[in-house]
Amino acid sequence: MKLFIASDIHGSAYYCKKMLECFDKEGADRMLLLGDLLYHGPRNDLPRDYSPKEVIPMLNAYKDKILAVRGNCDADIDQVVLEFPIMAGYSYIALEDRVIYATHGHIYSYDNIPPLKEGDIFIQGHTHVPVDYVKDGIRFLNPGSVSIPKEDSGHGYIIFDGKDFVRKTFE
Fold this sequence. Notes:
Radius of gyration: 15 Å
Number of strands: 10
Structural class: alpha/beta
Number of domains: 1
Protein backbone atom coordinates (compact mmCIF):
# COMPACT_ATOMS: atom_id res chain seq x y z
CA MET A 1 0.00 0.00 0.00
CA LYS A 2 1.32 3.43 -0.98
CA LEU A 3 0.61 6.01 1.71
CA PHE A 4 0.56 9.81 1.29
CA ILE A 5 1.21 11.56 4.63
CA ALA A 6 0.44 15.25 5.19
CA SER A 7 -0.35 17.61 8.04
CA ASP A 8 -1.51 21.08 8.96
CA ILE A 9 -3.67 22.25 6.05
CA HIS A 10 -5.11 24.94 8.34
CA GLY A 11 -8.02 25.79 6.03
CA SER A 12 -5.95 26.86 3.02
CA ALA A 13 -7.98 26.15 -0.12
CA TYR A 14 -4.94 26.94 -2.27
CA TYR A 15 -2.61 24.48 -0.55
CA CYS A 16 -5.30 21.85 -0.04
CA LYS A 17 -5.80 21.82 -3.81
CA LYS A 18 -2.02 21.53 -4.33
CA MET A 19 -1.89 18.66 -1.82
CA LEU A 20 -4.69 16.77 -3.58
CA GLU A 21 -2.99 17.28 -6.95
CA CYS A 22 0.18 15.74 -5.48
CA PHE A 23 -1.83 12.86 -3.99
CA ASP A 24 -3.35 12.10 -7.40
CA LYS A 25 0.03 12.43 -9.16
CA GLU A 26 1.72 10.11 -6.65
CA GLY A 27 -0.92 7.42 -7.20
CA ALA A 28 -1.14 6.69 -3.48
CA ASP A 29 -3.76 4.32 -2.12
CA ARG A 30 -4.49 6.24 1.09
CA MET A 31 -3.92 9.67 2.54
CA LEU A 32 -2.92 9.95 6.21
CA LEU A 33 -3.75 13.43 7.53
CA LEU A 34 -2.12 14.37 10.83
CA GLY A 35 -4.60 17.00 11.97
CA ASP A 36 -5.26 20.75 11.87
CA LEU A 37 -7.39 20.47 8.76
CA LEU A 38 -9.76 23.46 8.73
CA TYR A 39 -8.66 26.19 11.16
CA HIS A 40 -5.48 28.22 11.39
CA GLY A 41 -5.35 28.51 15.20
CA PRO A 42 -4.52 31.57 17.29
CA ARG A 43 -0.74 31.31 16.92
CA ASN A 44 -0.61 31.04 13.13
CA ASP A 45 -0.97 33.69 10.47
CA LEU A 46 -3.75 33.11 7.98
CA PRO A 47 -2.50 30.83 5.23
CA ARG A 48 -2.90 31.67 1.55
CA ASP A 49 -6.58 31.55 0.43
CA TYR A 50 -7.84 30.70 3.91
CA SER A 51 -11.30 29.26 3.31
CA PRO A 52 -12.35 26.28 5.44
CA LYS A 53 -15.70 26.18 3.59
CA GLU A 54 -13.81 25.48 0.35
CA VAL A 55 -11.53 22.89 1.96
CA ILE A 56 -14.47 20.83 3.30
CA PRO A 57 -15.81 19.61 -0.08
CA MET A 58 -12.28 19.10 -1.42
CA LEU A 59 -11.46 16.71 1.42
CA ASN A 60 -14.90 15.07 1.41
CA ALA A 61 -14.37 14.14 -2.25
CA TYR A 62 -11.53 11.87 -1.00
CA LYS A 63 -13.36 10.53 2.08
CA ASP A 64 -12.89 6.88 1.11
CA LYS A 65 -9.11 7.35 0.90
CA ILE A 66 -8.46 9.45 4.02
CA LEU A 67 -7.22 8.26 7.40
CA ALA A 68 -7.06 11.18 9.82
CA VAL A 69 -6.17 12.06 13.39
CA ARG A 70 -7.30 15.07 15.37
CA GLY A 71 -5.06 18.11 15.71
CA ASN A 72 -5.10 20.77 18.40
CA CYS A 73 -6.94 23.18 16.06
CA ASP A 74 -9.62 20.63 15.10
CA ALA A 75 -12.99 20.96 16.85
CA ASP A 76 -16.02 18.75 17.40
CA ILE A 77 -17.96 20.79 14.86
CA ASP A 78 -15.44 19.82 12.18
CA GLN A 79 -16.67 16.24 12.40
CA VAL A 80 -20.18 17.45 11.54
CA VAL A 81 -19.02 18.78 8.15
CA LEU A 82 -16.30 16.27 7.29
CA GLU A 83 -17.50 12.89 6.00
CA PHE A 84 -14.57 10.85 7.36
CA PRO A 85 -13.47 10.28 10.97
CA ILE A 86 -11.14 12.94 12.41
CA MET A 87 -11.69 12.76 16.17
CA ALA A 88 -9.15 10.07 17.14
CA GLY A 89 -6.03 11.40 18.83
CA TYR A 90 -3.85 8.75 17.18
CA SER A 91 -3.86 5.85 14.75
CA TYR A 92 -1.87 2.63 14.61
CA ILE A 93 -1.11 1.21 11.19
CA ALA A 94 0.12 -2.38 11.37
CA LEU A 95 2.87 -3.39 9.00
CA GLU A 96 4.38 -6.88 8.75
CA ASP A 97 6.79 -6.64 11.68
CA ARG A 98 6.35 -3.10 12.97
CA VAL A 99 3.74 -0.40 13.46
CA ILE A 100 3.28 3.19 12.44
CA TYR A 101 1.99 5.33 15.29
CA ALA A 102 0.45 8.48 13.78
CA THR A 103 -0.62 11.48 15.84
CA HIS A 104 -0.79 15.24 15.55
CA GLY A 105 1.99 15.89 18.06
CA HIS A 106 0.42 18.16 20.67
CA ILE A 107 -0.01 15.35 23.23
CA TYR A 108 2.33 12.56 22.20
CA SER A 109 5.47 13.94 20.58
CA TYR A 110 9.17 13.29 20.11
CA ASP A 111 9.68 14.01 23.82
CA ASN A 112 6.64 12.04 25.00
CA ILE A 113 6.28 8.92 22.89
CA PRO A 114 3.79 6.14 23.52
CA PRO A 115 5.07 2.60 24.12
CA LEU A 116 6.83 1.59 20.91
CA LYS A 117 9.53 -0.96 20.15
CA GLU A 118 12.64 -0.94 18.03
CA GLY A 119 11.74 -0.79 14.34
CA ASP A 120 8.46 1.06 14.87
CA ILE A 121 7.71 4.43 13.28
CA PHE A 122 6.40 7.51 15.09
CA ILE A 123 4.85 10.14 12.81
CA GLN A 124 3.58 13.51 13.95
CA GLY A 125 2.69 16.91 12.50
CA HIS A 126 2.06 20.01 14.66
CA THR A 127 5.49 21.67 14.53
CA HIS A 128 5.34 22.52 10.80
CA VAL A 129 8.98 21.43 10.58
CA PRO A 130 10.03 18.27 8.70
CA VAL A 131 11.80 15.59 10.72
CA ASP A 132 13.42 12.27 9.85
CA TYR A 133 15.72 10.61 12.37
CA VAL A 134 16.15 7.39 14.34
CA LYS A 135 16.53 7.26 18.12
CA ASP A 136 16.60 4.08 20.19
CA GLY A 137 15.65 2.13 17.07
CA ILE A 138 12.44 4.12 16.51
CA ARG A 139 12.08 6.23 13.38
CA PHE A 140 10.66 9.71 13.94
CA LEU A 141 9.03 11.53 11.02
CA ASN A 142 7.18 14.76 10.38
CA PRO A 143 6.04 15.84 6.89
CA GLY A 144 6.09 19.53 7.84
CA SER A 145 3.08 21.65 6.94
CA VAL A 146 0.93 21.72 3.83
CA SER A 147 0.11 25.42 4.22
CA ILE A 148 2.32 27.11 6.83
CA PRO A 149 5.80 25.55 6.70
CA LYS A 150 8.40 26.76 9.16
CA GLU A 151 12.18 27.06 8.96
CA ASP A 152 12.07 27.50 5.16
CA SER A 153 11.09 23.85 4.78
CA GLY A 154 8.67 24.20 1.88
CA HIS A 155 5.08 23.00 1.61
CA GLY A 156 5.49 19.25 1.94
CA TYR A 157 4.33 15.71 2.45
CA ILE A 158 5.78 12.22 2.83
CA ILE A 159 5.30 9.20 0.58
CA PHE A 160 5.59 5.70 2.05
CA ASP A 161 5.77 2.97 -0.59
CA GLY A 162 5.73 0.10 1.88
CA LYS A 163 9.51 0.17 2.32
CA ASP A 164 10.85 3.72 2.29
CA PHE A 165 9.65 7.12 3.50
CA VAL A 166 10.47 10.05 1.21
CA ARG A 167 9.63 13.69 1.93
CA LYS A 168 8.66 15.81 -1.04
CA THR A 169 7.57 19.41 -1.55
CA PHE A 170 4.90 20.87 -3.83
CA GLU A 171 7.49 22.96 -5.66
